[in-house]
Specification:
The chain contains eleven helices and two strands. It is an all-alpha fold. The protein is globular and about 50 Å long. The two termini are 24 Å apart. Strand 1 and strand 2 form a beta hairpin. Helix 1 crosses helix 10, helix 2 packs antiparallel against helix 3 and helix 3 runs antiparallel to helix 4. The protein has a two-stranded antiparallel ribbon.
């Protein structure tokens, strides 16, 4: 990965290039996935925001199921996960999501809310973060593979991998590093996303959200993966050139 694209050094201009490419790439999605993406990024967050205004924010069971379906289609496919989520009752989903969202009112750190949501069957830290992101898309990042690996990618000025730890989670330059989907890993994601969001917002003098970072990370990671699969040296490409040809989402078969 080019040194200019790692989180510590990426400029807002480069970041915005990849962020914009996500929306362009979305136009190539199959109809079903495009519909689910609309639910994930627009419909569900707007519904939760309206309920919050009405006095109680929560998610409906059907909304959680749709979000999980979206997550499985853009990431590792695990059919048993959907069945587990479906086994939660409508009341359990409403009650648990309401309790989790209420915790966010008094404490911006999502750790307790993640723990609360994880009480639902089929909901671990990664999926819990997706639900929380719909409640607060500005500051709560979704624990995607691409975001985790990008945020924990470090290289020194020579382009060599440089390892470092944050919240007990080691940074490295392995694009295929294993992910445990643990609360500790999510704590590191949250800390790094917050820091990056504040830096880029200050640099651009305009708000940068956690969802913006999620989308940019997706495109950067996919671009790197495409270069490696094609046997290309991505250091020979400019950000602008690479971003003109963003890769299409592909179902991954890795176990998570």
């Amino acid at each position: 990965m080019q040194t200019q694209l790692v989180p510590d050094t990426i400029s807002h201009d480069d970041f915005k290039t990849y962020r914009t490419c996500y929306d362009l790439d979305k136009k190539r999605l199959p109809d079903k996935l495009e519909s689910l993406s609309e639910l994930r990024y627009t419909d569900v967050p707007e519904a939760v925001a309206q309920r919050k205004k009405d006095g109680e924010a929560f998610l409906e069971k059907t909304e959680v199921q749709s979000l999980v379906e979206w997550k499985l289609k853009i990431g590792t496919y695990r059919p048993s996960l959907a069945k587990l989520v479906a086994s939660n009752s409508v009341e359990e989903v409403r009650k648990t999501t309401s309790a989790a969202f209420s915790l966010m009112t008094d404490d911006p750190n999502p750790a307790k809310a993640i723990s609360t949501l994880s009480k639902l069957k089929g909901i671990g830290p990664a999926t819990a973060s997706l639900l929380l992101s719909c409640y607060d898309p500005i500051s709560i990042p979704f624990f995607s593979d691409e975001l985790f690996r990008w945020l924990h990618w470090r290289t020194d000025v020579s382009g060599n991998n440089k390892k470092r730890k944050s919240k007990g989670v080691e940074d490295d330059g392995n694009a295929n590093r294993k992910i445990g989907y643990t609360a500790k890993e999510y704590a590191s994601i949250f800390e790094k996303t917050t820091s990056l969001r504040e830096r880029l917002s200050k640099e651009a003098e305009e708000p940068v959200t956690a969802v913006d970072i999620e989308k940019a990370a997706y495109m950067i990671s996919k671009s790197v993966q495409e270069d490696k699969s094609n046997g290309n040296d991505d250091t020979d490409k400019t950000v602008e050139t690479k971003a003109l040809y963003p890769p299409s989402p592909k179902r991954r078969k890795k176990k998570s």
